[in-house]
Sequence to fold (85 residues):
Amino acid sequence: MTRETADALWGADAVDHALRDPDPEPLTRDLTQELQRRARTLPTGAFRAWTLMQPWPRFCTIVAIVSGAVRQELEHFDDDNAEDP
Fold:
């Protein structure tokens, strides 16, 4: 998933606001599995509606996943923690 996907679902301003939230819900396997299942099985409008019904901290985490921000954060973390040969 990409930032463009997130912007198309919720609008750039909402995505920016959610990504700036200082206290999103912790990322869990259960959440990522539920998100994948719903993204795979629901039409786009129903998926968007489901995400908007989530509590704000969970929505922020969903936005981070869908926008690719979590992936970028993990890649940056890996780069920062790579051992020098």
Notes: Residues 3-78 form one domain. The two ends are 33 Å apart (CA to CA).
